[in-house]
Amino acid sequence: MRVYLDNAATTPVDPKVVQAMVPVLTETYGNPSSIHAKGREARALIETSRKQIAKYFNASPAEFFFSSGGTEADNMILRCAVHDLGVTRIITSAIEHHAVLHTAEELAANDGIVLELVKLDAEGAIDLAHLEELLKDTTNKTIVSLMHGNNEIANLLPLEKVGAMCKEYNALFHSDTVQTMGHYELDFKKLNMHFATCAAHKFHGPKGIGFMYVNADYKLKPMITGGAQERNMRAGTENIHGIVGLAKAVELAHEDMEGHQKYVTDLKMYMVDQLKASIPDVHFNGQSASKDSLYTVLSVCFPPNDMGDMFLYNLDIEGICASGGSACSSGSNVGSHVLRAIGSVMERPSIRFSFSRFNTKQDVDHVVTVLKELYAVPA
Fold first, then answer.
1. Can you give the residue ranges of every domain in the chain?
2. Selection from 13, 12, 1, 5 nearest residue 298 by Cα
3. CA–CA separation, 190 and 57 (whole Å)
4. 15-255: what CATH class?
């Protein structure tokens, strides 16, 4: 039996998304920059997809620019905010994805940007009072970059509160919404967001495609040059089948979003209960065991054991796919920067299990049974 519980790293592509993409690969293969019929067909697919996506976020199609995924989009937004919009100060946190954190650190080192880290509580929640202090105490043009849902510990940022705060103090607001796009309703206008990012493969779309949302009041220059694609914002021949797949994944995610949320939340909380009942001294990192956290992610802190780096390997042998933290950092051997930032006991192994609507209670039962065997817990 193989159980896939690493959906925060990537999700299986929905068969309906594949069905939408195949005709594009086989029939609508023209270059969308070409003026002949095949090119026009391809261009029409791109613009139709853009319109389909925009309607779900209360935004104009002109505010969406397709990218290779979330990392590129995060990079472009932060770099262009500094180089094109005059931003001289970035406020972020120590638990952001490295696409944000490393970019901010590089801009601080190379461009002289003031970099401020907002305080966290013991569970990794953003200290909103400290964020307000930071926003009050500056004359620098500021961008706040805080992720909506943490990919390791499942904490959720109150987007509406942070957006209102940024509006009050005249700061730009960017949120890395990669883990929550397709999982929560996001009204960009209501949330006072200037920038957001998306990666299709986090909600059953294809890899290698995503978008950046850029509020129409702000004009960025391209980070990738050499062509006029994406209205001169992102050079390179468009990933047409990926764009169509992204639009289909967005549509499917919104068809029964409440149902997906309830189903996956119940699955996660079932696993929380089973682990508490089966493994002595098990803990959970951040707010991941709460019903109010990012419902797709559960970060489990297990009792010390002698398996060390073999813990994940032993799970894999038993057919279980999970992660020791962010998959983007796997193999780095430095441990999770997120867990270090919240003071998690690094001597205790932590495993991230992440769920999708394609998982079942039988999957959870198999995982818990294997964990009991590894810990030699009597049946």
1. 3-11+256-374, 15-255
2. 5
3. 10
4. alpha beta
**What pLDDT does residue 332 have?**
47
**CB of 319 within 8 A of CB of 2?**
yes
Same CATH fold, 15-255 and 3-11+256-374? no
Tokens (6 digits) for 352:
């991230």
**DSSP bridge partners of 309:** none
Report the top-level CATH class of 3-11+256-374: alpha beta
Cα torsion for 261, 148, 126, 159, to the nearest 10°? -90
Can you tell me the distance from the alpha carbon of 118 to that of 116, in angstroms, rounded to the nearest whole number? Answer: 6
The tens digit of pLDDT for each residue in 275-284 reads 999 999 999 9
Gap between the Cα atoms of 188 and 211, Å rounded = 14
Active centre residues (catalytic): 328
SS (H, E, C) 152-216: CCCCECCHHHHHHHHHHCCCEEEECCCCCECCECCCCCCCCCCEEEEEHHHHCCCCCCEEEEECC
> pLDDT tens digits for 18-50?
999 999 999 999 999 999 999 999 999 999 999
